[in-house]
Amino acid sequence: xxxxxxxxxxxxxxxxxxxxxxxxxxxxxxxxxxxxxxxxxxxxxxxxxxxxxxxxxxxxxxxxxxxxxxxxxxxxxxxxxxxxxxxxxxxxxxxxxxxxxxxxxxxxxxxxxxxxxxxxxxxxxxxxxxxxxxxxxxxxxxxxxxxxxxxxxxxxxxxxxxxxxxxxxxxxxxxxxxxxxxxxxxxxxxxxxxxxxxxxxxxxxxxxxxxxxxxxxxxxxxxxxxxxxxxxxxxxxxxxxxxxxxxxxxxxxxxxxxxxxxxxxxxxxxxxxxxxxxxxxxxxxxxxxxxxxxxxxxxxxxxxxxxxxxxxxxxxx
Amino acid sequence: xxxxxxxxxxxxxxxxxxxxxxxxxxxxxxxxxxxxxxxxxxxxxxxxxxxxxxxxxxxxxxxxxxxxxxxxxxxxxxxxxxxxxxxxxxxxxxxxxxxxxxxxxxxxxxxxxxxxxxxxxxxxxxxxxxxxxxxxxxxxxxxxxxxxxxxxxxxxxxxxxxxxxxxxxxxxxxxxxxxxxxxxxxxxxxxxxxxxxxxxxxxxxxxxxxxxxxxxxxxxxxxxxxxxxxxxxxxxxxxxxxxxxxxxxxxxxxxxxxxxxxxxxxxxxxxxxxxxxxxxxxxxxxxxxxxxxxxxxxxxxxxxxxxxxxxxx
Lengths: 317, 313
What we know:
Helix content of chain B: 55-70%
CATH topology of the largest domain in chain A: MetI-like fold
Helix content of chain A: over 70%
Radius of gyration of chain B: 24 Å
Number of domains of chain B: 1
Family (chain B): Belongs to the binding-protein-dependent transport system permease family.
Structural class of chain A: mainly alpha
Oligomer: heterodimer
Largest interface: A-B, 114 and 119 residues
Protein name (chain B): N-acetylglucosamine transport system permease protein
Mean pLDDT of chain B: 83
Shape of chain A: globular
Largest sheet of chain B: 2 strands, antiparallel
CATH superfamily of the largest domain in chain A: MetI-like
Subcellular location (chain B): Cell membrane
GO biological process, one term (chain B): transmembrane transport
Number of domains of chain A: 2
Number of strands of chain A: 0
InterPro entries (chain B): ABC_transporter_permease (IPR051393), MetI-like (IPR000515), MetI-like_sf (IPR035906)
C-alpha cells in the first residue's frame, strides 16, 4: 500500500504562495478568462461549502429553539431566543458528565497504550533481525483488511467467558474495552510506525549502543523522540478513530444486571437517538448533538494543520 | 552489542502480540471453527454439522441482498467521492487567477479546505443522527422542508428517504440516500489529500505545458491526473473499506437496522441480526467467514489493479 512518495511529515496542506517567477507576461491575454475561471471555481466551492456547513449550522441553531418553534418553523436559521435550558436538560437526560468522563478514560487509556505498545512492536520489527520477524509483521498486516464485524460473535463470547474468570476483563469494563481498542488499533499503528522507524538513520543507534546504553534506553531516549512527527500523525489518527468508535462499545459495553452503564460518547448518542432518550424532545436532541459536535470541531479548528496532515499523511504511507 | 538482544526483543513484543492474538486473530480463527457447528449461542451445545451452514448461505436470499448492496457501495462510494474530490481539488488549485496553469490556490482556498474537512472529524454516529433529522419524512426535516418551499416536493407526499425501499435505477432508494451521506462525509478528506499531491507536482512541468499551448483542462487530464495516479489508487483502496463500513449509517438510520423490508441490508447487519436477534451463532460465523473471503478477494483485486511503476519526479 506504500504507493506514494509523500512521507507523512511533509504532508503539508497549506496554501502555497504564488510563484512570482518571470513577471506576468501573459496577463493581458488571459485575465478575463482568469476571472471567469476563478469565479466559476468559487461558485462550485461555495455551493459545496454551504452543503457542509448548513446542516451543522442548522443543528446548532435548532438547539436554541423551543420544541414549539421547531415544529412551527423548522427551517429558520435564527431562533427566537437563546433557550439555554435545552442544553442543561440534554446534559442531565443524556448523563453527559458520565459520558464525557467514560470517553476520556477509555480513549485516553486506549490511545496511550496503543502508541506505547504499537511503537515498541514496530521498532523491534523494523530494526532487529530475529527468526519469526517477517511472520509477526505480516500477522499484524493481516488485520488491516478484515472488518471488525467479522469478529463480532467470537469476540462477544470470548469477553463473556473471560469475565467469568477475571471480572475486570468482562463485559462493560473499562480495562476490557481499553485492551480491545489497543488490540484493534495495533495493526495500523505497527504498519505505520514500522515504515517510520526504518527511515531513521542507524548510525545514531550504533553510536548509542557503543556509548553503552541498553536497547530499551536507546528506544525511549533516542529513537522514540526522533520518531516524533510519525507519532503525532498516528496519534491524531488514533484519537479520532477511538473517539468515534461505536461498534465495539455497542457490542461489548452492555451492562450486566444491576450495573451502571459505562458508555463512551458514540454509544451514548446511539442510545439517545435510537433506543429511548430524546423521543419527542427535539430541542434536547439538537442540544445533545451540538454538545457532542462543538468540542471536536473546536479542537479541529485549533489544530487544523496537524489534523489534516496527520490524517492524510497516515493513509498515504 | 548482541548481549541481551533476545531478551529485549521478547520483552518488547510480548504484550502487543499477546493482545493482538487474543483479541483480533483468535476471534477470526474461531469464526472458522464455529461456522462448522449449529451453535445456538445462548446454550452451550455445539454439534459439528460440516459445511451445512455454507450450503444454506449460498441459497440465502438475505445474504444475496447484502452482497449486492455491498457491491453497489463498493462501486458508487469511490467513484462519486473521488470524482468530486478531484474536481474540488482542481478548482481549488488551478482555478486561481494567474496566467500559468501552475499550482496556486484560489483566494480563500485554506478556508475551503478547513470547512470541507469538517465531516471527517465528526463521528459517523453523530453524522448519522444529524442526517436523520435532515431526512425526516415530514415537513419538519431540513430537506423535505426546503424542497417543499421551492415547490419540488408535494407537501401531501413528502420524500421518505431512508424509509423508502422502492427501486431507483434498479437499486433501493434508501441506498442512494445513504450513499449521499457517505459522499458528503468523504469528499473533503480526499480533496485535501489530492490537493496536497497536486501541490507536490513541480511547477516547471505546468510551465512547459503552458508554453506548449495546453489549456487548463487539457493540462489537468494530460498531466495532473496521471501524476495523481498514486494518490487516487490509495483513495480507492481506502474508500473500498469505507464502502464496506456503511453499517454505522444502516444501524443508526434505517428502520429495524437493515430495513425497510431488508432494502438496506449489508453483511454486518445480517451478521448482527443472525447472531444477536435470531441467536444462530454458528450460522452468523459462516456469514462472517464469507465476508472475510469477500474482503480478501477485494483486497487482492485492488492490489493487482493499483500496482504499477511509480513516476518519480
